[in-house]
């Protein structure tokens, strides 16, 4: 059970029949008992409710802690009940407050089987026998187990197998539903133990006959060469000394209880919180976390615990995937006890930052334009691929180096190129950024035109005087409506002129107080004006824009149709240009509002 914040509150286990003895090889809490691991001192009192035949029983425990400063405590609830034949039981754990009011209930009602049990010190073959249900192997499925604690006289008495089997069934009958094959397999396991078990060496402290073991031929059961492999349990090896478990007695020291917490999830490179718990009847056990990576985890992935000896800790991995975390408790007396949970670590996409070329930077055609982009990724075990789309039909794909995507490219034609840079990890996570580079070609011809569009008027003329020119010559006059009247911008200070092979043109320049952009193509024009106090390039919301919200890229600028006037865009270079009066920026002229 956990509270609303996910904090561990309590956990319970049911020990059916000789289940505890079967698993731990030593006396435990007793036949058909419960063990409860509780976060003590939290004001919540654990109770266990279960059924015995037709009656319901309730055990109320205590919230007091055994050790100062240690918030966990193990409780044992002994039912004192061992039916001759297995019985179904329903049980659950709940937490109540000091007034007895119910606060939390465990995983609803749990259905189990009360194991049968017999005890006879005068028996020639076995002192204790028990039949119960338990997990079989590593599959998690249930099976019926008949378990006996043999006497010294039983070893080597294979000729008495039917006699021992009959006594077992008389004292602790098998439940209905056991098939003929299962019955015969259990009999063969008993015969093998009688013949080959060696006290203190093989066979373990109990002879456990699992119904799920296949019914193999007698020659494999009794062939000494085969026994070396299956050891009378078709694969199970026992190495514990035989002892006699008491009936609901007090063990000298029971095994710890441990809880790894619920399955959880988090991001790679970030701490996932693990909320485990462990306690022992002897006090605080030593605990240690470990982990194993699933098949979906890439090679080279590592994980670390913030404190692997603390039940509450953090878990951080360098890559995504599924991991099994295991909390092991050791009281120094019994075999260590472990519990596991699954942690699903999710991939986190890289985050990219494009730092070059600078936005709106100007480059001459066929000069190299260098891209610089860096990225971060919390998955330090990821590998990354860079992809640069240059906006002229060319794409560069290559492996990232030291968290960077650096590349160079030469543009063959003028344009306003939106360069997109993408960094992708090997788990399909990606991020991208972009920048725009202006590429001019001084041989790319002439732009001239005049007209009106959406209430604004324009006159433009510009070209590069020679193939070696770095700035165009020409003049621009724009008259645009603003909230304070019409603004007239006149200038011969041009920064660049772009004329593309498909007949689009763009020009940027400035007057004394304003910057401007003009986009043109056959029969269309877009004018943009902004105050230079807002910067050298147009802000997101300029003072005036014929096509507000459209891209600055010449290919997506969306100029509007000219209502009156004419436009000439010549993409071939024409030497010479008529001399224009003035060489600098002309003053702005704000006309009165009309």
UniProtKB/TrEMBL annotation:
- Tell me the domain of life: Bacteria
| Entries under Pfam families matching the protein | DUF2599
Q: Where do the segments described as Disordered lie?
A: 241-287
Q: What is this protein called?
A: DUF2599 domain-containing protein
Q: Which organism is it from?
A: Streptomyces salinarius
